[in-house]
Amino acid sequence: SMxxxxxxxxxxxxxxxxxxxxxxxxxxxxxxQRWSDDAARSSRTxxxxxxxxKEAEALVAxxxxxxxxxxxxxxxGEWRTIPVLDQAFxxxxxxxxxxxxxxxxxxxxxxxxxALRARLPEENDRVGxxxxxxxxxxxxxxxxxxxxxxxxxxxxxxxxxxxxxGAVDGAATARRRVA
Length: 179
Known about the structure:
single chain; mainly alpha; 179 residues
């Protein structure tokens, strides 16, 4: 009969509609879960970014204090204090570093770096240059992309290495003249 065929067709349509509705509800639930997961990830990301910003602020504050102390020592002619503050500047950077391997590597060479610093003349034109480099590095950490600050720090380290080499070469030349 036509009524039975119509009811069967209607029943199939209801089943299809019910299945489609169930599928749509499942998709909506999955989207809600994904949005919830995305919101949680975004929240964790924002918290991490805020923590990094606070760490950067603390790093800049510590470095600015060091640069100011170095300037006061320079102005007062406290030449023996400047290498200590120079080493402290680099230790501050390392202390704020999150990479434990870099911290360990620095500790392996820190005494060698201090020994090289001790070979530099107490009062020389490199002291002012070093202060300018430190101030520029702090400004870049505070205001520029991280890559710029990293490049400036790497250049400062290479420049300082050249100063150490010059001091060692100069001392060797002076010893040869005396001998």
